[in-house]
Amino acid sequence: MAEHNDSSVDVPEVDATNPERSGRALRARRFPTAKKQTRDVATIENRASRRSRRRVHPVRSTFTVAAVVGLVATVAIPAFAAVRGTSADAMTLQQVAANNAQSIVVASEVGPASLDRSGFTATTPEEIKKKKDEEAAAKAAAEALANRISASSSTASSSTSYSQSIPLVAPGSGLVRRPLMSFNNFGTPYAGHRGTDYMADRGTPIYSVADGTVVASSESGPGWGVYVKVAHNINGTNVTSLYAHMDWGTRAVQVGDTVSAGQLLGQVGDTGRAFGTHLHLEIVVDGAYMNAESWLVANAG
Positions of the region Disordered (predicted)? Predict the structure, then answer.
C-alpha cells in the first residue's frame, strides 16, 4: 500500500515525549493571529506612555527656566540699585519732592518752637499742685468777698434808718465844703501815705467836697476797701477827691453820677488796709497830690 504525503498542509510535529509542549506548539501554529494582536496592543501602550512623558517635559522645563530667571532677578536688581544709587544720576529727597509737586521740611529749617505756658511756671507735679491750690484759694476768697458785698448791700438797702438818721446834704455853702461835719483827730502820717486820715466813728456821714462827677465807686479798692472818687472843675482847675475805707454797703453813688458840693457819698468805716475807723481823703490838683487839710483850710467855705 502506497503512503500518501500532502506537502501543502503544514502539520506540526508532535513531541511524543512531552505532550504539554507539543500542545502549546500546536496551538501556536494553529492561532498565530492572537499572539500578534497581543504584541500590537503592548506596543501601542508603550508608545502612548512615551508620548505622555514627552508632553510633560516642556512644562517642567518652563517652570525650571522661570525659577532660574526669578533667582537671577532677585540677586541682580538690588545690586543694580546699589550701583545706580552711587552714580551721579541719583535723585535726592528734595528732587523727588519737587517732581511730585510736594514740599518737605529739612532739619536745617526746623527751629525750636516756643511753648506758650500762659504764665504757668510750675514744672513738677508738686509745683503744679501748689499752683492749682493757690488759684483755687484765690477764687474762693474772691467769691467770699463778692458774697459779703452782696449781703452788705442787701442789708443797707433794706435798712429804714439810713435816710432818716443820716443827712443827705451837709450844712453850709460855697464851692468847696468839708467832707465831715466832725471828726476826733488826725491820723499819724507815714512815708508813702498820700492822703489825710480823719479819725471818726463808724457810720459818720461823708460828703463831696465840691460839685463833680463820680469816676470810681467800688466795694473792693486796692487797699482802699470801699471807696468813691469824684472829678471836679473848680474855677477852671481840675481837682479829684478820693474817699476811702467806707463801711460796707454805704456807698450812695455810682460811676457816672453827678454830685453837688456837700452831697452824701457814704459812711466812715475801716475796710481795706485800715486800723480803726477813719476817712482817708486824697486831693489831687492838676495831677499833683496835695495835703488835704491844708487845701481845705485854703478853699473850704
Answer: 1-38
Task: Using a cut of 0.90, tell me whether the model's pTM lies above it.
Answer: no
- 3-state secondary structure (DSSP) of residue 53: helix
Helix 32-85 to helix 19-30 angle (10° resolution) is 80
**pLDDT 10s digits, 93-119:** 566 555 555 444 444 444 444 444 444
CA-CA distances (angstroms) from residue 172 to 71, 179, 209, 210, 234? 118, 11, 11, 12, 17
* pLDDT, tens only, 66-96: 776 676 666 556 555 555 544 445 556 566 5
Ramachandran sector of residue 273 (left: φ over 0; alpha: ψ -120 to 50; beta: rest): beta
Q: Give the pLDDT confidence score for residue 155 in this predicted structure.
A: 46
Q: What is the DSSP letter of 108?
A: G
Nearest-angstrom CA–CA distance, 64 and 70: 10
Give the C-alpha separation, 252 to 265, whole Å. 5
Strands 205-207 and 212-221: unpaired
How large is the greatest C-alpha to C-alpha distance in the chain, in angstroms?
206
Using CB atoms within 10 A of its CB, is residue 200 exposed (0-12), middle (13-18) or buried (19+)? Answer: buried
Cell, residue 286: 492838676
Measured in residues, the chain has a length of 301
Contact 259, 228 (CB under 8 A): no
Helix (H) or strand (E) holding 67: helix 32-85
